[in-house]
Predict the structure.
Amino acid sequence: DQQVKQNSPSLSVQEGRISILNCDYTNSMFDYFLWYKKYPAEGPTFLISISSIKDKNEDGRFTVFLNKSAKHLSLHIVPSQPGDSAVYFCAASGQGNDMRFGAGTRLTVKP
Amino acid sequence: EAGVTQFPSHSVIEKGQTVTLRCDPISGHDNLYWYRRVMGKEIKFLLHFVKESKQDESGMPNNRFLAERTGGTYSTLKVQPAELEDSGVYFCASSQFLQETQYFGPGTRLLVL
């Protein structure tokens, strides 16, 4: 059962433009959501998170939006930079702190 | 502050052999998690320790996998005997007690031939 889904395996954007990565979840018990970035041959690196009591969290160029009624969250990167090219994983956790991950979206930012 | 470390970084073994992976969490982190990524797909949860106790091992695929965390510090994940489908990248993560954010190690790349 895939409780967290990232339906776009890849995304390509031009440097300076906005990157929007999407994530859907099915378990209504999830109350904390995270985005991780992963470079090849490295472990996932925490990027940004949001609690279910909020609908937006911003950190520099990165903003995460949460729509609880639609069970949907998105990560906005603006402006996108070539160094942002990586695989982005959406993750969700509930009371037990055990995270469930999406399959990842490979972002390519072209100079 | 040192991050999560994992050893070895790579392991190539034959089917039927035994492999033991080690994870050293960030000092002071009570929560320790094991995950696996197979065939470049999603990262799947294996199990969760709180200190030395197994909080949740619902993701362990079968009884060929054994995880321990004696003393509540580092953890080992043993695969015995290894099968071809066990190949993948095994990640360890840790977090502070009651904190949601988990910090990942670099992973161990396991290839079973």
Remarks:
- The longest strand of chain A covers residues 86-93.
- The CA atoms of residues 37 and 57 of chain A lie 17 Å apart.
- The mean pLDDT of chain A is 92.
